[in-house]
Every structure is written in C-alpha cells, then in structure tokens.
C-alpha cells in the first residue's frame, strides 16, 4: 500500500530525498531528452511551449521509476571556432558530478516519480467487491516498463510561468 501514496506529479530535488544521483547505482533507459535550449543573448520570453511531446527510443530495458532532470550549460572560449577543444561546460549530470559534492548540494538533480500514463483501471467487479478503504491492486500506480529498441512517447507539460514541469511516459 505504500506505493498508493507515491507522488507522481511533483518534481523534487534529490537532496530533499537525502541522496545524490552520482552516488547511487541507476540505469538510464534512454539518451537524455533536451527539454529546453536557451541562448541567454537571444532567447525571448514565451520561447517554451506549454506542452511538448517527444519520441524516445529505449537504449536499455527496465522499469522507469523516475524521470531524472539535470542541466548542462555550454559556451566556447572562441566564438569564431566552436570546437570541443575550446568548449566550456558546467553540468549537473550525475556522470559529471561524481567528484563534485558542492555542485550536487547547490544545484544537484531533480526527479519526478513515474506512473504509467494508461493505468489499468479497476474492473466493475473489483470496485463493487471493495469494502471500506480496500483499494483494488489494479488501481495502484502501475510501473513504466521499457524494452530496449522500442520507441515511447514522453510528454512534458509546464505551468503558465514555465517554473513547474510535469512528465508522463
């Protein structure tokens, strides 16, 4: 019954849960999905869509328990020659913060717990046989299971001010 209380609508910083993603074993089921791309010199207000849909190919098979959010900022030491040799990167990707405890504690990563977007609803029989506060097993959060090589739909909806994001997979 613990999973019946799982908050699958809020994005929460991992430090609030008391851990750093860079210090726990986890498996990425896809390549990162670039949700926002901002050029601070050119981007104007209203650049982000209220809802975005992404086709994502699974690079691994497994159960997606959460969506991991991090940011990456890139610049070049030379604007005339933008190559990896003169690229400057600041990132909160767990792979980039393994030895950077202060960055994880200041910015870190965020996660949103996931629930299948098409949950199995209780049957009429289950609903009618439920007595009092008994919740049929099919009404509990359903796992998001991905298979390597398959393509999936991922959606990102943002609040009017684009401060709050919510993901469904």
Fold and architecture overview:
The chain has 3 helices and 10 strands, in the order E-H-E-E-E-E-E-H-E-H-E-E-E. It has helices at residues 14-17, 101-106, 124-129, and strands at residues 12-13, 51-57, 62-64, 66-69, 72-76, 87-91, 110-113, 144-146, 151-158, 165-168. The strands form 4 sheets. A 3-stranded antiparallel beta sheet has the order 1-7-4. A 3-stranded antiparallel beta sheet has the order 2-9-10, with no helix packed on it. Strand 9 and strand 10 form a beta hairpin.
Order of the strands making up the biggest sheet = 1-7-4
Overall mean confidence score, pLDDT: 79
- Name the helicity range: under 10%
User: Which secondary-structure class do the elements indicate?
Assistant: mainly beta
Largest sheet: 3 strands, antiparallel
Which geometry do the CA atoms define? globular
> Rounded to an integer, what's the Rg over CA atoms?
19 Å
Number of helices: 3
Q: Note poorly predicted spans.
A: none
List the keywords.
169 residues, mainly beta, three-stranded antiparallel sheet, 3 helices, 10 strands, 9% helix, globular
Topology readout:
Blueprint: E1 12-13, H1 14-17, E2 51-57, E3 62-64, E4 66-69, E5 72-76, E6 87-91, H2 101-106, E7 110-113, H3 124-129, E8 144-146, E9 151-158, E10 165-168
Antiparallel strand pairs: 1-7, 2-9, 3-8, 4-7, 5-6, 9-10
A few lines on this structure:
This protein is mostly beta strands and 169 residues long.
């Amino acid at each position: 019954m613990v999973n019946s209380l799982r908050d699958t609508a809020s994005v929460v910083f991992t430090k609030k849960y008391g851990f750093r993603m860079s210090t726990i074993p986890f498996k990425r089921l896809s390549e990162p999905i670039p949700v926002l791309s901002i050029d601070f010199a050119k981007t104007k207000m209203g650049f982000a869509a209220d809802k975005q849909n992404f086709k994502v190919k699974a690079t691994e098979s497994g159960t997606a328990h959460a969506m991991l959010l991090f940011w990456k900022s890139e610049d070049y030491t030379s604007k005339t020659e933008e190559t990896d040799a003169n690229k400057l990167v600041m990132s909160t990707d767990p792979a980039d913060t393994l030895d950077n405890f202060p960055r994880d504690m200041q910015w870190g990563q965020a996660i949103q717990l996931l629930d299948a977007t098409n949950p199995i609803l209780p049957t009429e029989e289950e609903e009618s046989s439920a007595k009092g506060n008994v919740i049929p097993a099919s009404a509990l959060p359903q796992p998001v299971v991905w298979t390597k090589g398959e393509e999936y739909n991922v959606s990102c909806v943002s609040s009017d001010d684009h401060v709050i994001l919510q993901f469904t997979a």
